[in-house]
Each structure stands twice: as C-alpha cells, then as structure tokens.
Design a protein that fits this description.
Layout: H1 10-24, H2 27-37, H3 39-45, H4 50-74, H5 76-79, H6 84-99, H7 103-124
C-alpha cells in the first residue's frame, strides 16, 4: 500500500478492477440491487411484527445492501482510501445505481468499464 492507502502493484489493482467488474454483471449483484433499490417494497413483502421481526428485516435488508455495494467499496483500495475524488466517484456510482431509474443499466455498464480498466492496467503493468 502507498501513502494514499491504495494498492501499489498494478497487477493487484487491475485484478481488483476486473473482479469488481465481473461482479457487477452477476445475477447476485442484480438481485441485491433490486432489493436494495426498493426498501418499501421489501418491507411490504417481508413484514415481520415485533422487535425481533424488525431486527430480522433489518438484517435481511442490510445483507442485500451489503451484497449490492461491498465489492464497489473494496475499490477504495484501488484508487486510495484517502483519495477524496475516488471516494466521491464511488459514492456517486452507488447513489446512481440505487436511486436513478436507469441504475441497473449503469451497474452493468460500469461492470464493463471496470473490466476494460483492469485489463488496461494489467497490460500497462511492468
């Protein structure tokens, strides 16, 4: 890791980008994104009464949101955990995926961009 807390070996960073890009294209990512995008629909479909029911619903919905965004958050180590521009870019991507009507299409397109970026980084690595 460098001083900005990013992965210094280009081949490792490229591998992270490719892995994240491939995950963006999986049915698991799509399913998690669909559940995470509509919390009201999730609550209506999975309603459980009481405190334990609320806790269970929160854990389940949180797991969907984690499945939706955890791999993207790992990309902080590619661009740098201390790099505010990289953090803002990832935040914008997550927000668009979750909130925009075309978010699912953005997720797929970003998957392709990440794969191409990872391959380019690997090709340029010494």
């Amino acid at each position: 890791m460098s001083a900005m807390m990013n992965l210094s070996p280009a081949h490792l960073a490229g591998g992270f980008l490719i892995a994240a890009g491939l995950y963006q294209l999986t049915p698991l990512k799509t399913a998690c994104l669909n559940h995470c995008r509509g919390p009201v629909a999730f609550l209506a479909a999975h309603w459980c009464a009481g405190i334990s029911g609320a806790f269970r619903m929160g854990l389940t919905h949180g797991a969907y949101c984690l499945g939706c965004c955890a791999v993207l958050m790992l990309l902080l180590f590619v661009g740098g955990v201390m790099n505010l521009v990289w953090i803002a870019g990832l935040t914008l991507l997550v927000a668009v995926e979750k909130l925009a009507p075309f978010g699912a299409a953005v997720a797929k397109a970003m998957g392709a961009v990440l794969i191409v970026g990872g391959v380019a980084l690997l090709a340029a690595a010494p």
